[in-house]
From TrEMBL:
InterPro entries: Arc_rbn_hlx_hlx, Non-func_TypeII_TA_Antitoxin, Ribbon_hlx_hlx. This is Putative transcriptional regulator. GO terms for biological process: regulation of DNA-templated transcription. The keyword Coiled coil applies. Residues 32-59 form a coiled coil. The keyword Coiled coil applies. CDD domains: RHH_CopAso-like. Gene3D superfamilies: Met repressor-like. It comes from Halomonas ventosae. Keywords: Coiled coil.
Length: 90
C-alpha cells in the first residue's frame, strides 16, 4: 500500500474526523472508501459515455428500431407471449 499526502480544507477535515469517529475507523480508511466509490462512479460514467457515443454512431448509420416495435416488446414483458428484443434491420 502506498502513502499519499492530501491537503484538506478545515471543514472537510472536521467532517472526515466526525465520520471516522462515528464509524470507529481511521481517517485513512474513510478516505480510501470514499475514493474507491468515486473511482467506480467515474468508471461507470465513462462506460455510459462510450455507450452513448456508440449508440449515436449506430443511429447515424441508420441502425434503428421502429418505436412501435419497441413498445410492443415492452408491453409483452411479464406475459405468456413475451417477445425477444427487436433488432434493427441493418
Amino acid at each position: 500500500m502506498s502513502v499519499t499526502t492530501v491537503r484538506l480544507q478545515a471543514e472537510v477535515e472536521q467532517h472526515l474526523e466526525a465520520i471516522a469517529s462515528r464509524l470507529h475507523r481511521s481517517k485513512g480508511w474513510v478516505i480510501n472508501q470514499a475514493l474507491s466509490e468515486y473511482i467506480e462512479k467515474q468508471q461507470r460514467e465513462q462506460e455510459r459515455w462510450q455507450q452513448t457515443l456508440e449508440a449515436m454512431e449506430s443511429a447515424a448509420q441508420g441502425k434503428v428500431v421502429d418505436a412501435s416495435e419497441v413498445h410492443g416488446w415492452l408491453n409483452s414483458w411479464g406475459t405468456e407471449n413475451e417477445q425477444d428484443a427487436p433488432r434493427s434491420g441493418k
